[in-house]
Here is the input.
Amino acid sequence: MLTVQNLQKKFNNHFAVDNVDFSVSSGEIFSLIGPNSSGKTTIVKSITGLLRIDGGQVTVGGNDVAKNPKEAKSLIGYIPDEPAVWSGMTGEEFLHFVGALYGMDPELRRKKIKELLPLYALDGVEKDQFEQYSRGIKQKFSILAALMHEPKLIVVDEPIVGLDPESAIVTKKIFHDFARAGGAILLVTHTLSIAHEISTRIGVLKKGKLIAVGTFEELKQIGKVGHNATLEDVYTALTRIM
Here is the structure.
């Protein structure tokens, strides 16, 4: 569903992302982990078309993000690390707005909103002003907005930040259900426990380069750590030796 080939992005002649290659198949949850300034958010913004790449290719469902942005973006649901919306808009209006951007007619939008709100028990607060919501509720609406048009790929930048434990559990279930239904998920996170718990495969970034990719068991072998090692142990070993 998602293919990233030789991706390059420079800022002031410095490679923030340097020849990164990976793919995410339907039914898969792929996590990218790495320290600050390792290129995670740059990769996310390149995939979603928010940044113009300097080299390589990104395709979504066979559509080149640079050459066929409308077709590629129609397949993506994007959950940013910081929820943002126009001042004065309600949660419900925000969901309608996002659905309209993807060409959903009003009746279909209403039906989808009615279906999505109970996932986080948000029915009853959807008519409140977005700016009055807590950070966690804003994040919940952002996650629901990404699901509005039934995308094939969800790109998530730090999904659990601001969510209470119960909502984090609900979010993980949403992601698992989406993947089981044939969707693909790219998850970027600093929370190694989340990456370990829900990922099919994991990629480790360091200074703009993808230094290792594999299942948790495969990464343990690459990092040459013990059988009982945690993802934190693996991550520390890989970023130290590579």
Q: What stands out?
A: Residues 16-75+152-242 form a domain with the Rossmann fold fold (CATH 3.40.50.300). The first helix runs from residue 40 to 47. The beta strands are 2-11, 14-24, 29-33, 55-60, 63-64, 76-79, 153-157, 184-188, 201-206, 209-214.
